[in-house]
Amino acid sequence: MILMNDGLVIYFSQTKRTEKIANLISQACKTSPYPIQVTVPYSSEDLDWTLPNSRANQEMENPAARPDLKPLKLELTGKPKIFLGYPLWWSQAPRAINTFLDTYDLSGYKLYLFCTSGSSSIDKSVRELSKTYPQLNIQAARRFANDTTLAQIETWLKSL
Fold it and tell me: Where in the numbering of this chain does the Flavodoxin-like domain appear (predicted)?
């Protein structure tokens, strides 16, 4: 079971869906969420997967793409558990998550992944992140729908 105040909630969100889930987890854990933000914000055209040359498509087609991030003032000491959230892009974590994981050493922390998606499973993203970052200690991973409630989040946390 997750104890209050012993974890951090870090998330990347562009359409507020993942932010909503991060806020619910933060509320349940009595901690503050930390948003991962790119230095150049995405426009709606950048995120439009139907446009072949959209920024999101270009990033996801290039496994080496690493968008620049704004600095995060994280204090990891005393926080053994990290909740890391993201939307699924092409069934994977967005490349901003890779930039974050390249920047911050999370080895030695228990990592709980969460994502938002209307229908895709989190499984492919977990496999890709585990392959790229074998030092991660991923404890659990869960996809949440847009209509997830605080009670559902609390039930998940109690199961961990």
Answer: 8-158
Q: In this structure, are residues 79 and 106 in contact, taking their beta carbons and an 8 Å threshold? A: no
CA-based torsion, 44, 100, 7, 72: positive or negative: negative
- pLDDT tens-digit map of 12-29: 999 999 999 999 999 999
What number is the average pLDDT over the span 120-143? 96
The structure's pTM equals 0.93
CATH code assigned to 7-159: 3.40.50.360
Q: How far is Cα 93 from Cα 65, in angstroms, rounded to an integer?
A: 12
Phi–psi pair at 140, nearest 5 degrees: -160, 160
